[in-house]
Write a structure and sequence with these properties.
Length: 232
């Protein structure tokens, strides 16, 4: 379905998008991060903007500058991203969690640049909060409140369908966008993506290789019909 010129299917919707990788500091000059470029999240934010939404982009480390016409909130760590997302939930209609959130952070963050000493160094890591799961829990506690529609991502290298559906259920998402990050033309850093979209009833659509912007347009069409179905 082509969008008609002037049609704004997300007009009046407050959309929160997370994009990029988180940065987990070891000391003032060193950190742990991942290969996320932010491109998929940016494409989703741009597409929502063009569909008339009021977009807030919670942005970790990315390769490029974020798009114009959206409110940008820069964050560093998973903990900061967690707080930035959670405090905005009461004023959000749709959440899209495209960010690659580090699962662990260093237990200690050294105040000064660490000096080398021994032949080996062990860095102790501790689990970060799972932001998407926290959103799911917030939703289930939200009796009577307006609940945001939640779109999660799953980056997998094996058992794409099983892992993606497990995440959808565990994190109580409405849709999950699953990426096989080993496929060429998909995943981190690429201009294109290849994804499978799952809902509570299983596979909704296989989106073949296309630009991240085209994937984003299709995701919004699926999300819009999901939101309309929930209303009626
Ligand atoms: N996610 C999150 N907070 C985390 C980890 C992940 O919000 N601490 C979100 C991601 O933004 C993504 C989804 O959860 O939308 C799935 O991320 P992924 O790394 O694929 O799954 P995990 O649940 O972290 O499981 P694992 O890495 O062990 O496969
Ligand atoms: Ca993870």
């Amino acid at each position: 379905v082509k969008m008609l010129i002037g049609e704004k299917p997300l007009a009046g919707k407050r959309v929160l998008v997370t994009a990029g990788g988180t940065v987990e500091r070891i000391d003032p000059v060193r950190y742990i991060t991942n290969d996320s470029s932010g491109k998929m999240g940016f494409a989703i934010a741009e597409s929502a903007r063009d569909r008339g939404a009021e977009v807030t982009l919670i942005c970790g480390r990315t390769d490029a500058a974020p798009p114009n016409g959206v409110r940008v909130v820069k964050v560093d760590s998973a903990m900061e991203m967690h707080d930035a997302v959670m405090k905005r939930l009461p004023n959000t209609d749709v959440v899209v969690k495209a960010a690659a959130v580090a699962d662990y952070r260093p237990l200690h963050r050294a105040a000064h640049k660490m000096k080398k000493s021994n032949e080996s160094l062990t860095l102790e890591l501790v689990r970060n909060p799972d932001i998407l799961q926290a959103i799911g829990e917030w939703k289930s506690e939200a009796a009577g409140r307006d609940k945001p529609y939640v779109i999660g991502f799953a980056a997998e290298t094996t058992d794409l369908e099983k892992n993606a559906i497990d995440k959808l259920i565990r994190k109580k998402c409405d849709l999950i966008v699953a990426n096989d990050v080993t496929e060429s033309g998909a995943g981190f850093g690429t201009e294109t993506n290849i994804v499978n979209v799952y809902g509570a009833l299983g596979l909704i659509e296989r989106i073949p290789q296309m630009t991240k912007r085209a994937v984003a347009e299709r995701l919004w069409e699926l999300a819009q019909s999901g939101m309309n179905a929930a209303k009626s």
